[in-house]
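General statements about sequence and structure are easier to judge against a single worked case. When preparing material for the folding task, we compiled for one chain both its residues and its backbone structure tokens. The amino acid sequence and the backbone structure tokens for this protein are reproduced below:
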Amino acid sequence: MKFFIPLILVICLVVGCNDGPNETSHPMFIKYRKALNSQKYPDAAEYLRRYLKVRPDSCAGHLAMATLCDEKFDDQLGAIYHYKQVLEIEPHSRQCKDVEEWLRNAEKRYYLKAKNKYNDPEDVAALQNTLYEAENMLKLAQNENRRQAVLVSERRQKIVQLEHELKMNAIEATDVSILKEQLRECNTMVNQLEVYRSTLTRSEKEKENRLQELREAMKGQNIIIEDFRAKLEISQKENQKSAQNLTELRQQLKETVEALAETSSELETLRVDSQKTTTKKPITKEDDHVKTTLPTQNKTVN
């Protein structure tokens, strides 16, 4: 039953440690769990040793190693070391009281085992010397552990920095790929514009040729219009001359009509006079001649 209580605490501490589930996702820790479930305890201890070399500040790793040493290998001295590591790494954890209790139990068991083994005072003194040396080695190991923890922290910061640089490089690479894609699109658009420009150039040339043809046709039309204009001016001049001639002819006709009217009045006067003369004297050949000639003149006047 003593084995299951620390195992539960291991799970709790894994959740409460600084790195959280990242600790237990390490390949060595995963192999440790598989070996533990398969009851291959030496293999599990070996995987934990490799893991603690990489992560010397892992609460879950030290607690699991302490449990193996205390419960499976009967190595109370190793369990004491790893329990103390847990308390040093997480001095304010909620499970510290349990770990302290397990540490005291491991120390008691180690003391009783040593007491039963070494009853001689000299042996006790030698054991005390061994304990003193072990404590000194433990302190050295703790100092080395602190130094390794500092190195691990620095390496973590370096890893974080490298990950940040990697992300920035990935972002820059993405930006470069986007720029390349945009460049390809721009090149495609340029090619399309070149084709469109060549099409427009051909169209402009056709329009210029058509415009030139229209200009030539306009020149011909302008020549024809100038000819018609000149003929129209000549015709207008001729019409003016005709109008003047017509006016003159009208004037002459008016004068002729007036002359005819005067002649008619004179003839009428002559006719009246001739009638008067006819009533007074017989008709002679001269009178007969006048009668025969007057109607002819009247007809001509009319």
User: Anything to note?
Assistant: Residues 1-9, 296-302 have pLDDT under 50 and may be disordered.
